[in-house]
Amino acid sequence: MTAHTDLSGISIPPGLLPADGRFGAGPSRVRDAQIEALAAAGRGPLGTSHRQAGVKDLVRRVRAGLAELLALPEGHEIVLGNGGSTAFWDIAALCLIERQAQTVVIGEFSAKFAAEIDAASHLEPALRCEAAPGQGVVPSAEPRADALALPHNETSTGVMLPPRRPEGAPEEQLLLVDATSAAGGVAVDLAGIDAYYFAPQKALGSDGGLWLCALSPAAIERAERLEADAGRWVPAFLSLTSALTNSRKDQTLNTPAVATLLLMAEQIEWMLGQGGLAWADARTRTSSGILYNWASQREETTPFVADAAFRSQVVVTLDLAEHIDASALTALLRTVGIVDIEPYRKLGRNQLRIAVFPSVPPEDVEALIAVLEHVLDRC
Ligand SMILES: *Cc1c(COP(=O)(O)O)cnc(C)c1O
Q1: Which atom of ligand 1 is nearest to the CA of 151?
Q2: Ligand 1 atom 14: residue of nearest CA
Q3: What is the pLDDT of residue 106?
Q4: Which residue's C-alpha comes closest to atom 2 of ligand 1?
Q5: Residue 325 reports pLDDT greater than 60
Q6: Full strand arrangement of the beta sheet holding 147-151
Q7: What's the 374 CA to ligand 1 centre distance in angstroms?
Q8: CA distance 149 to 132
Q9: What's the pLDDT tens digit per position in 91-101?
Q10: Rounded to the nearest 5°, which phi and psi values hold at 141?
């Protein structure tokens, strides 16, 4: 055991601080302009019926905006409902996986979906393709699986995977991509992805509580067929076809969080105004690139994801040298308003996890580095 350096005497000059100190991986920073739009909406949609034009118009803005942002292929549809991405795992287990799925498990979030599949009595246990935390893996074709589940970005470790079907995978196999922390921050080609699902509180810089999904025609067909099967009980709340029917009418099955919808509509339209997903992708590449470069040069910091090809451009994980106590460092930074750069709680590493979603300007990343330099220089 190396002794930890004492950080208690270090003070951080206010001039170094980023304009906004929120670097969390979710809920992530909500821009001031979104909050102002929410306040300006006043008595408009807030506190009014979600079956009337005011709230339906918000759902319409979210669906149309996402279709444009994600360049939704012909025939694909944007569907949404309540419960966040965690609810979508159950929806997928019931309405999209027929008998057995192959799952890529590379961290906490991908493991949770695999565990849910294992626990489902109507499904065979998941066929796992695993890699240790901090590593990526590209699955090979699994002929027994009728669905393949993989995370586009594993938020717990900062590993990004190409959301692609393996060569030789069965034609009817659905590709289900957990894009919770990728959607809106990373370029993607949805052709060939059957369910690209996410939640608003990560790259989309809004509040949590909803799930959203870009569904392919094949996925819609699968859900219609599985839900019609009398042998499978699909609770109404988890029915993908009811979510679809409601989404087509710019509604949700039950009452949504109206403020979340408004924050998200504002964020999507802001991104479109800046240059859409290509702009967002370039911005997160820039921000993460600055961090990885810096960390590779500095002796006390090492990118956790050794293989640069798998390094996330939205969630940067950096291991710290043993003599720097990450929890003392993050506690010190909290005192000056830099928050949520602790590692994923269950990972248990001496690490920083820094999210650089599109709402985080690269200048704030530079400022964060200046603060980290200031502290590390005094260790
Ligand atoms: C945050 C996250 C989830 C869980 O999202 P909820 O909306 O809280 O259910 C699932 N998968 C990934 C990759 C995530 O980052």
Answers
A1: 13
A2: 180
A3: 98
A4: 180
A5: yes
A6: 77-82, 210-215, 195-198, 174-178, 147-151, 101-105, 127-130
A7: 33
A8: 17
A9: 999 999 999 99
A10: -60, 135
For residue range 353-373, list pLDDT tens digits in order.
Answer: 999 999 999 999 999 999 999
The predicted structure's pLDDT at residue 1: 53
How far, in Å, CA of 204 to CA of 208, rounded?
10
Distance from the alpha carbon of residue 376 to the mean position of ligand 1, in angstroms: 32
Of 80, 85, 110, best ligand 1 pocket probe by most atoms within 8 Å of the beta carbon? 85
205: pLDDT strictly greater than 70? yes
Q: What is the rounded distance in angstroms from the CA atom of residue 360 to the CA atom of residue 160?
A: 19
Confidence at 283, pLDDT banded by 50, 70, 90: very high
How many Cβ atoms sit within 10 Å of the Cβ of residue 91? 24
Kindly give the distance from the C-alpha atom of residue 153 to the centroid of ligand 1, in angstroms, as a whole number. Answer: 10
Mutate-to-test residue for ligand 1 from 155, 159, 340, highest number of ligand atoms within 8 A of CB: 155
Q: What residues are in contact with ligand 1 under a 6 Å CB criterion?
A: 26, 84-86, 109, 151, 155, 178, 180-181, 199, 202, 208
DSSP per residue over 84-130, as a string? Answer: HHHHHHHHHHHHT-SS-EEEEE-SHHHHHHHHHHHH-TTSPPPEEEE
What values do phi and psi take at 127, rounded to 5? -90, 105
